[in-house]
Amino acid sequence: MVNENVSLVISRQLLTDFCTHLPNLPDSTAKEVYHFTLEKIQPRVISFEEQVASIRQHLASIYEKEEDWRNAAQVLVGIPLETGQKQYNVDYKLETYLKIARLYLEDDDPVQAEAYINRASLLQNESTNEQLQIHYKVCYARVLDYRRKFIEAAQRYNELSYKTIVHESERLEALKHALHCTILASAGQQRSRMLATLFKDERCQQ
């Protein structure tokens, strides 16, 4: 299928059709087939970037279901979002970087998570997708929290607690995180101001 003697147009179409059927297989079988396919494509990976990206997204989903966060993240890292020939749209790149960051956070690796949040930061102003903007803010707040930058995290969580697009229970959860981070922050004017802001919030008094 990916032999150089086969027309690229035909190879791409066959591989695309092949990939659409793989999610119907049991996860353990699909995982083996995905790895085998990626290995076979590798010598001509530049010619099959779109198909490789699709395979990697599906493979990462399987690892995520298995709660194998690190492997899921590393599979997605293999998508050449910036270096390949294919031009990916802003939302696709932003969503993928945020997913990688979230997976590294689940794996308790805030350093790697921060690296991908920083990449997402360069794109988030170009996106008009409100849901992705929220995902970015949540992920960024979590990274700051993990990195023990408690005041900055509290400010981000507090901002999220006012976003009406976010479900009410999640807004209250963000408010709790804001309060928790403020309590953990070092004493000083910023902490005092943040505490004053939170204690004025009627929701904190419930």
UniProtKB/TrEMBL annotation:
Main location: cytoplasm
Domain of life: Eukaryota
Domain PSMD12/CSN4-like N-terminal: 1-168
Lineage of the organism: Eukaryota, Metazoa, Chordata, Craniata, Vertebrata
Transcription recorded as keyword: no
Keywords on record: Cytoplasm, Nucleus
Name under which the protein is recorded: COP9 signalosome subunit 4
Places the protein is found: Cytoplasm; Nucleus
GO cellular component, one term: cytoplasm
